Amino acid sequence: MSKQHNFLGIVAVYFGDPGDGVMGDTLTEFNDIEVGSTTLEGASANEENIPTESNDTYITVDGTVDPTNMVVRLFGVTPEQRVQLMGGKVGTVDDGEDEGNYMAPAGKPSIYQSFKAVGKTVDGKRGVLKIPYGKISARDQGTLTKNGLPAVEVRITANTPESAAGDEGSPYILGFEDVV
């Protein structure tokens, strides 16, 4: 088995506005990632069993598909970055003592971003996962203790990107790139 084709750990993740059916070209880097927090769940087809009237057998048909998604927990997220991931705003001078603080929105906005995850280098290659058009669901989560930190937990659900011309792209791209 080649060591070059393994996605080992996460060095950084990136979020930004999507392009026209492709990855966005201006992404914000997040590199303070909780160890063991990043999970990838590939798309899975659900099956439905339909019983038949004539006997105790059944017919199995394809049901809905659960899309590919990734979850990552981030530390050290700035107020501006929270707005990018969760909506809301950064307090201004008009907000008095909350100036500069993250102010959550009253409702959860629908946020779509391009997402990229980059793994550690192994024998000159590193894994790269790209989601050109992902639904972002982020929340503050964690225990407030003297030996623990709350994090921003982000779930990215891969959607099929579509350009203005109607061309559809891949919901996600997983590959490896040379590191020089």
- What is the number of E strands? 12
Mean pLDDT reading:
92
What is Rg? Answer: 20 Å
| Gap between N and C termini | 22 Å
Regions with little confidence, pLDDT below 50 for 5+ residues: none
* Helix vs. strand class: mainly beta
Count up the helices. Answer: 1
How would you spell out the order of helices and strands?
EEEEEEHEEEEEE
Shape: globular
Q: Tell me the major beta sheet.
A: 8 strands, antiparallel
Helical proportion, percent range? under 10%
Approximate strand percentage: over 45%
Q: How many separate domains make up the residues? A: 1
Protein name: Phage tail protein
Organism: Christiangramia forsetii
Outline the structure in words:
This protein has 180 residues and is mainly beta. It has one domain (3-43, 69-178). 4% of the residues lie in helices and 45% in strands. The protein contains 1 helix and 12 strands. It has one helix at 79-86, and strands spanning 12-16, 28-30, 39-41, 44-51, 58-66, 69-74, 89-90, 102-103, 111-122, 125-141, 151-158, 173-178. Strands 1, 2, 3, 6, 9, 10, 11 and 12 form an 8-stranded antiparallel beta sheet that branches. The chain has a two-stranded antiparallel sheet with strand order 4-5. The chain has a two-stranded antiparallel ribbon with strand order 7-8.
